[in-house]
Design a protein that fits this description.
With 231 residues, this protein is largely without helices or strands. The protein folds into two domains: 88 residues, E3 ubiquitin-protein ligase SopA (Pectate Lyase C-like, 3 Solenoid); 138 residues, Pectate Lyase C-like (3 Solenoid). The protein is 4% helix and 3% strand. The chain is built from one helix and two strands. The chain has a two-stranded parallel ribbon with strand order 1-2. It is elongated, with a radius of gyration of 19 Å. The protein starts with 5 loop residues before the first helix and ends in a 21-residue tail after the last strand. The mean pLDDT is 96.
Length: 231
């Protein structure tokens, strides 16, 4: 796999719009404009993409482990099947991005915009989703075991069949969300809002619940050791 310098990468992006298959590991790619550029199957471990505009770009199959993607624009980008564990994605915009099948263990999305992003079957074990704007996020079948989502806005989210065991959802707004058959065992639900959410067949055993809002929530078949109306 050919390794490129920063200058070579910027030149190829401008001339071809396609950097697929190159080694960009450790490169400083801050503050660059790479709209709708292909980075498919690139090795970008530890690369710095902060403050860049990479909206609509295609990273499918790339390795972005430990990379810095903070304060950048990735609106509508394709991150399908990427490896992006322990990466810094704070304060960036990923609205409408597709992370289906991605491995995002330990990734930090604090204060990022994730509205209408797709995380179907993605692995977000231990990820940090604090203060994210994630309205209408779609994550059916995703793994969010131990994820932290303090005060995240996840109104209308789809977590059908998702694994949310031991997740910390303090102050999280899940109004109108779909959590059908979701696994929330031992999750921490403090001041969590489930107004009009669908928790049918969800597993809520072992959860810590204080001050939660279950008004108009659908609880058919939900499992819990104590009445779900109890806060």
């Amino acid at each position: 796999m050919e390794k490129l310098s920063r200058q070579q990468a910027i030149l190829l992006a401008a001339e071809r719009g396609d950097l697929s298959g190159y080694d960009l590991s450790g490169l400083d790619l801050r503050d660059i404009e790479c709209i709708a550029v292909r980075f498919r199957n690139c090795v970008m471990r530890g690369a710095n993409l902060s403050s860049s505009n990479m909206s609509m770009s295609d990273f499918e199959g790339a390795d972005l482990s430990g990379a810095n993607l903070s304060s950048a624009n990735f609106i509508g980008a394709n991150f399908k099947n990427v490896l992006i564990e322990k990466a810094d994605l704070t304060f960036s915009s990923f609205a409408g991005a597709d992370f289906s099948g991605a491995r995002l263990g330990g990734a930090d999305f604090t204060n990022s915009k994730l509205s209408a992003a797709h995380f179907g079957s993605a692995d977000l074990t231990g990820a940090n989703l604090q203060m994210t704007e994630a309205v209408l996020i779609s994550a059916p079948g995703a793994v969010l075991k131990g994820a932290k989502a303090y005060r995240a806005s996840m109104i209308g989210a789809n977590f059908s069949g998702a694994d949310l065991r031991e997740a910390m959802l303090h102050g999280t707004d899940l109004s109108g969300a779909t959590l059908v058959s979701a696994n929330l065992r031992n999750a921490s639900l403090i001041e969590t809002t489930f107004t009009a959410a669908d928790l049918s067949n969800a597993d809520l055993r072992g959860t810590t619940r204080r001050g939660i809002d279950l008004r108009r929530a659908i609880l058919t078949g939900a499992q819990s050791e104590e009445p779900l109306g109890a806060a």
